[in-house]
Amino acid sequence: MATKVADAPKWRTSPTAHEALQAHFREHPESKPSHPHPYDVSRSDIYVEDRWQPIFAEMRAKGPLHYVPDSPVGPYWNVVQHKAIQHVEALPELYSSSWEHGGITILEREEGSEFELPMFIAMDRPKHTGQRRTVAPAFTPAEMTRMADEIRKRTAEVLDGLPEGEVFDWVDRVSIELTTGMLAILFDFPWKDRHLLTYWSDYAGDTELALVREIDQLRYEVLHEMAAYFQELWADRASKEPGHDLISMMIHSPAMNQMSPQEFMGNLVLLIVGGNDTTRNTMSGIIHGFDKFPDQRKLFEENPDLIPNAVQECIRYQTPLAHMRRTATEDSELFGQQIKKGDKLVLWYLSANRDDTVFENPDKLDITRDNARRHLAFGYGVHRCVGARLAELQLKILLEEMHKRRMRVHVAGDVERVRANFVHGFRKLEVEVTRF
Length: 436
Description:
Low-confidence stretches: 1-9
C-alpha cells in the first residue's frame, strides 16, 4: 500500500492551489503566460475578470471552429458553436478523450511527464464503458430517491445556520459546505476530514498550476497524498461487506478493482472535481444570477413551480466547467476545416451555452426558457456527466429550501471569480440574507 497519511503531511501545511499560484505570480510577474493570439482563450484573466463573452461571441459569428497556432498550451482548435460541439462529441472514436492522446483539458503535458492521470472520462471505449458502469449505480433514480432526504436535511441545517442582516461569504458557508458534505457521503469519507475534499479538488481542477513547474510538482505531491489517504480507506472497505459508497463499488468491480495507482488517483480526481466544483459553482452562480437579474428572482419567489426549469437555466447560464478537450485520431474534415491527426480540439461548453442560434437572448438568465435543458454543461454523448442527476437534485433542493424559508440573497460585498480556464465559478461571493 502507498505511504501512510501520517507520513504525508503536505496537506496540513501547504497553501491552497489559489494561494500558491498567486504567490508565485507576485514573486515572478514576468512568468505570467503571454497570449498574443486574439482567440487564445486559454488565458485565465478573461474568466477571472468576466470578459470572455464578447471574444466567444465574435468567434461564433465567424464560424464553428477557429485555429490558434501558438499559445502557452500549444496549438489548438476552438470549437465554439453548439451544433459543432455535439457533432464532435458524437464521434468519440474519431475525436478521442483518452489520456493517451492528451486527455480532456486544454493543457499540454510535457513529453514523458510522470503526471498522467488515467480516468474513465479520459478513456475511450471499451474501457470507458466498463469503468463508467461501475460508478453509474451510485447515480440512478432509485439512489437519488434514497439520498434526497439526507440532502434536504443537510441543506436545511446549512441554511438555518446562516446569519441574517450580516454579510458573509456564500461560497464558503453554503456552496462549499453542501458539496463537500455530499462528496463525503458518496465516498463514506471521514466527516471530520471532509474539507480535505475541497482542498484536493482545487489542486486537481486548476489546470493553470501545471504552467508553473514548482507548483505543478506541489500539485503532484498533494494528489499523491490524496491517493494515499484513499488507499487507506480502500484497504478498510476491502475487508467489509459491499456498501453503497463509491469506494466499495470500485473495490467490488472487475473493471476497476485492479487499477494502477495512477488510474486510482485519476478516477478520484474525476469524481472529486466532477462532484465538487460543478455543483459548488452553480450554487454560487444561482445567487449571483438572481442578483444580476432581479426580475428572475421575483419570478422564482412568486412561482416555485418554476424551480426544476430554473435549475437547468442556472446550469446553462453558469456552465461550471468551461471546456473539454478531444484529440483527432486521424485526418478529417470538420465544418470545412482540415483537421490533422493529433490536433487538439477544445470544446467550449461556455460558448455553446451562449449560442444565440439555440438560445434566444443567451446572455440573460431566463428561468422560463423553454429549451434550457439543451445546455451542454454536462457534455454530450457517451461522456455526458454520470453525476448529472445528483447535481440537479442538489440544486433543486437548495432552491426549494430557500423558497420554503422565503430567503432572498443579495450580493453585498466582494465578488471574486476563479482564475482558471477549466473550472468556471466563484472563489468568494459576499452576500446578505433578507426575506421576501
